[in-house]
Every structure is written in C-alpha cells, then in structure tokens.
Design brief:
With about 280 residues, this protein is an alpha/beta fold. The chain has nine helices and twelve strands. A hairpin with a 6-residue loop joins strand 11 and strand 12.
Length: about 280
C-alpha cells in the first residue's frame, strides 16, 4: 500500500508554496461577488472557508485557482502574480477539485486519473514510467485501483469523488484547492474523505477547502476563513474564531459552542425553538 509520504509535496517544489490574494475584486461578467479581498493561505495549513450560501466562498477559491481573474488586485503564487505563469506551470503548483465535476462520457477511472499528469507533459516530454507510477500510487491511495477499467459515470457518488481526488493526487502539487468536496456524500463518505484530506495535510500538502458543515471545518481545519456578503469577517484557528457570537453574526444562528467530545475542537450546538432536552426517562 502506498503511503501518503509518497504523495507529499513534490521534490523540487517550494516547501509549502505561498498563495495569497491582495485587494482583489472578484465577480462574474459585471456582477461583483467579493470586493477588496486580502487573504493569505498559511503554508502547510488545512484552510477551510466557511460562511452562508452565496457569500463568496467558492468565488474566493476560484480566484485562488485562476479560474476567475480579479478585476482589481491580484492573486500571488510563490511571490509572483498568478497570471504571469503559463497555465501548465500553475497546474504543476496548484491542484483543483472543482464542485460537481463532470467526467467525459464513457471515460474510465484509469484514464481520468491519468489526466492529472497532463501538466507534466510537453512537446519533448511524453508519457513516462514516472507518470504511470504516479497514477498507480494515486489510485492505490484512494482505493480505486479495482475500479480502473470501469466508466466513471457508472460509479456511485462516493466512488466518483474518490476518483476525482485520485486525479488531483496524480497531479502531484503542493497546494490542493477543494470546492465543496463532501457535497452529495453520505456522512460515512464525508468523514472518510475529510480524514484522507487530514492525512494529505500531515504529509505536506497545503489544502484549501470550501465546506458547509461548520463542525467538520472546526474538527479538521487548522485555519478557518469566515465570509459574509463577499467579505472576510474573521480568520484564525478554530479555537480563535468559532464562537457563539460569530456564528450568530455570520450565519444568523443562535447556538452554544462546546468542546467536541472526540476531538476537543469547538462544536456548534444550535438552539432550536421547538426541540429541547426531554426529562430523563420521558419518551417522545
């Protein structure tokens, strides 16, 4: 079984590549989603972006990945404007797992994972044994080797997500951007995937994920960015920023924040209007 050490930051890459946004205004067409964003992604962190729907979380991630170009300000990768790099060079440094990714019709698992090696190909450098090994390692780590010959569109949601992560692993970048990676997965597959991301983080990757579940973010993230109405309202460790006051301000939810009984990280307990603890022994 391949260890995660084998999939850590590639040799020759900058240790913990630096990624940040300086004073960026980001939107689509003429509609501004986020204005004057300045955010730094700590090297070697598992950063999680949280906030209510339509607050700009995915827009921020797309700006970091160069899918959306800021109309003002800039995204800086390894000390230079990200737009100064050629597309393949960006792809060698930053991997992206997009939201609701769609595979080409009929493509097999092995062929989709192999597409992660595209940034490493060129006119003079074609497919090599090293590429073959990178694909095999990634599929092994994600436990999809047995699915290698199956069409991706025949797989379950959890299996497909594992295949997409394998493709990102095969890309072999120091930074991985993950846009709502647990969406549409049941709770078991959500936890399995988040545990995998934690292992990747410990192996040396810098991860940036958009998550909807604040308790998952607090348990697995090392650095949180809280957004509201296109602005960053707080950032820091889960212990620093996950408070009842912040949750009510950002999400409009009254709650208690207590220690997670398993991880010790902050856990949000909503204060419901109709459900309260029943007296001991009383049935519903």
């Amino acid at each position: 079984m391949t260890t995660l050490t084998d999939l850590a930051t590639p040799k020759g890459a900058a240790a913990g590549p630096r990624l940040h946004i300086d004073g960026a205004t980001i939107g689509y067409d003429h509609r501004v989603i986020a204005r004057d964003l300045s955010v730094s992604i700590p090297d070697g962190s598992f950063t999680v972006i949280v906030g209510p729907n339509a607050c700009g979380k995915s827009t921020l991630l797309r700006g970091l990945s160069r899918l959306v170009k800021p109309s003002a300000g800039q995204v800086v990768l390894d000390g230079a404007d990200i737009n100064s790099f050629k597309t393949k060079e960006v792809a060698r440094r930053v991997g992206l797992l997009p939201q609701s990714a769609i595979a080409p019709d009929g493509i097999t698992v092995a062929n989709l994972v192999a597409r992660g090696r595209y940034p490493h190909q060129g006119f003079l450098r074609q497919w090599t044994e090293a590429d073959e090994q990178a694909v095999a390692r990634a599929m092994d780590q994600m436990a999809v080797t047995d699915l290698s010959g199956r069409p991706v569109d025949e797989l379950s949601g959890g299996q497909r997500q594992r295949v997409w992560v394998a493709m990102a692993l095969a890309q072999h970048t120091g930074i991985m951007l993950l846009d709502e990676p647990t969406t549409f997965l049941d709770i078991t597959h959500q936890i399995e995937l988040l545990e995998l991301f934690t292992d990747l983080h410990h192996a040396g990757h810098t991860l940036v994920a958009v998550l909807h579940d604040l308790n998952h973010a607090a348990r697995y993230g090392t650095h949180l960015i809280a957004m509201k109405d296109g602005h960053v309202v707080a950032e820091g460790t889960p212990e620093q920023i996950v408070t009842a006051e912040l949750v009510e301000d950002v999400f409009g939810l009254r709650c208690l924040v207590v220690p997670d009984p398993v991880a010790g990280t902050p856990q949000v307990v909503p204060l419901g209007r109709t459900r309260t603890a029943r007296p001991e022994g009383k049935q519903a």
